[in-house]
Amino acid sequence: MGRAMAVRFAAEGASVLGADWNEEALKAVIDEVTAVGGTIKGVKTNVADRAQVEAMVQAAVDAFGKLDVLVNNAGVMDLNQGVAELDDDLYRRVMGVNVDGPTFASRAAIKAMGENGGSILNIASVAGVGGGAAGAAYTMSKHAVIGLTRNTAFMYGPKGITCNAIVVGAVATNIMSSIDPTKLDQYGMSRSQRYYGLIPAQLQPDDIANLALFLVSDEAKMVNGALVAADGGWRAA
Question: Quick one: pLDDT at residue 141?
Answer without folding.
Answer: 98
